[in-house]
Amino acid sequence: MRLVFLGTAGYHPSEQRHTPCLLLPECGLMLDAGTGMFRATDYLMTSQLDIFLSHIHLDHVVGLTFLLHVLAVHPLDLVTVHASPRELAALDEHLFATAIFPKKPSCQFQPLAPAVSLPGGGQLTHFPLVHPGGSRGYRVDWPGQSLAYVTDTTAALEADYVAQIQGVDVLLHECFFRDGHADLARRTGHSCTSEVARVARQARVGRLLLVHINPLEQGDDPVGLDVAQAIFPATTVAYDRLEIEF
């Protein structure tokens, strides 16, 4: 299975990174719809697209307004946005308010089911995360391969979500702050480098890719990668347009 990172920053785009958007092209599955959404036209392979939202803070959903461009370049038979009924109502009322965005893209809203079947015998499930306003993580399992996506939460060994990601082949976990900002991370609902690595180690995941990077951090090492690798060696920092097979 191929995973493409269309956007790997949090909060706002930078010269290096767009905000969260991840795509599995072969099965038409997207996780979050940040500003990296416009890049989907280079990778889409299916006639349908299912977008699963972790939550509806703007950096994770503003790319839904880019669907007009995406659909013009790569027509799709169906686009479905999955989130809670409350979140879908808020998107319809506010993001797609006529005064803000007068032409809503051709997509349907679907209340998020407890489990969703995927092509190839896969299944997507979700679990709650602690974050101001709420958030959710996702786990995707196919026969012989698995993936978890955890963003906008504070990494901690005692967090309930750690049990939900046990043993996945690939863990995508937010890492907005370098070490030394634990208080700020807790107050804003984000994570620091060492704690993310400790979670990966405790959950016995195969590999860890860090996402939702602070856009103010520039350069090749925005999180202190050596710190993470000292705890969990199979750690890398994801970057925009990175493609991995798992």
Which structural traits does this protein have?
Metallo-beta-lactamase, Chain A; 246 residues; 19% helix; globular; seven-stranded mixed sheet; alpha/beta
Describe this structure in words.
The model has no long low-confidence stretch (mean pLDDT 97). With 246 residues, the chain is of the alpha/beta class. It has one domain: Ribonuclease Z/Hydroxyacylglutathione hydrolase-like (Metallo-beta-lactamase, Chain A), CATH 3.60.15. The protein is built from six helices and 14 strands. The protein has helices spanning 58-61, 67-73, 85-95, 182-188, 193-203, 225-231; strands at 2-7, 21-24, 29-31, 48-52, 78-83, 108-111, 115-118, 122-129, 135-142, 145-150, 170-174, 207-211, 235-237, 243-245. Helices cover 19% and strands 28% of the residues. Helix 5 (193-203) runs parallel beside helix 6. Helix 3 (85-95) links the parallel strand 5 (78-83) and strand 6 (108-111). The strands form two sheets. A seven-stranded mixed β-sheet has the order 6-5-4-3-2-1-14. The chain has a seven-stranded mixed β-sheet with strand order 7-8-9-10-11-12-13, with helices on one face.
